[in-house]
């Protein structure tokens, strides 16, 4: 455990190393959440993928593609019409703080 976290090999876990370990745990959880939405694993969440995932979770059959596109647009910082992991991460981080 110590060896795995102790990146500079001095036998002690520094605050920086400890922080890096926590960060990894956090992005793992986010990665898993992201993969829930990203069905084909291409690192992008499309409107269709978001729609399908939300219908699965909310059991909301009347959730429209337009509504999903709106949600995508709210997260989609670079405007390419899909949500990348970075955009997803940024959105999740804002929400939890
Ligand atoms: Ca995808
Ligand atoms: Ca984007």
From TrEMBL:
InterPro entries xref list: EF-hand-dom_pair (IPR011992), EF_Hand_1_Ca_BS (IPR018247), EF_hand_dom (IPR002048), EF_hand_pair_protein_CML-like (IPR039647)
Keywords: Calcium, Metal-binding, Repeat
Keyword DNA repair part of the UniProt annotation: no
Record bears the keyword Repeat: yes
Domain EF-hand: from-to ranges: 1-28, 33-60, 63-97
A GO molecular-function descriptor: calcium ion binding
Listed PANTHER family: EF-HAND CALCIUM-BINDING DOMAIN CONTAINING PROTEIN
Protein name stated in the entry: EF-hand domain-containing protein
